[in-house]
């Protein structure tokens, strides 16, 4: 978590990048528009956008010969949840200590899941960790669920099925929501 925060703050520790984020918060922009609005050269804007994209804060889409850049609000929301989650601040105890030990072995410093554990009990710890990206009472599209999972591991289909199988997520008509923790299958009983 510390390395993720450091990388985020390094990316944001530049006035031009902060101004780019501000403009993109209002809507999509091309490099040319950003350069004009910020009174910067296009290669300079492209350099700043590359840094923001590397941190997952900005997305780009092609439309003919123009690339449109936008603020990735979902990525910013996930980062905020990770930073402000009380469980990350307090030292773990009991079952949480076991989860933390499992996560140290399966999660890289940048938040990427190295592999999906074969053990059901260890997989349960990883799934509980993934659930911190999903808020109570919010409905998610399948695309949003996949994006949140893929920010940690490429195999969103398997992990999505596991989250449903462990009764952590529910779905109906391709809409997903978080189930109460009391209903979750905690370890190997899924």
Written overview of the protein:
- It is a single chain.
- The relative contact order is 0.10.
- The chain is built from ten helices and six strands.
- Helix 9 (142-150) packs across helix 10 (156-165).
- Strand 2 (58-63) and strand 3 (66-71) form a beta hairpin.
- It has two domains: 2-72, Winged helix-like DNA-binding domain superfamily/Winged helix DNA-binding domain (Arc Repressor Mutant, subunit A); 85-183, no CATH class.
- It has 190 residues and is of the alpha+beta class.
- The longest helix is centred in the N-terminal third of the chain and has 13 residues, at 42-54.
- The strands form two sheets. It has a three-stranded antiparallel β-sheet. A three-stranded antiparallel β-sheet has the order 4-6-5.
- The two termini are 29 Å apart.
Fold blueprint:
Blueprint: H1 2-12, H2 15-26, E1 29-30, H3 31-38, H4 42-54, E2 58-63, E3 66-71, H5 73-84, H6 86-89, H7 95-106, H8 120-130, E4 139-141, H9 142-150, H10 156-165, E5 169-172, E6 175-178
Antiparallel strand pairs: 1-3, 2-3, 4-6, 5-6
Task: Write a brief structural summary.
The protein is α+β, with helices and mostly antiparallel strands. 54% of the residues lie in helices and 13% in strands.
Helix content: 40-55%
Strand order of the largest sheet: 1-3-2
Tell me the number of strands. 6
What is the average per-residue confidence, as pLDDT, rounded to a whole number? 84
Span between N and C termini? 29 Å
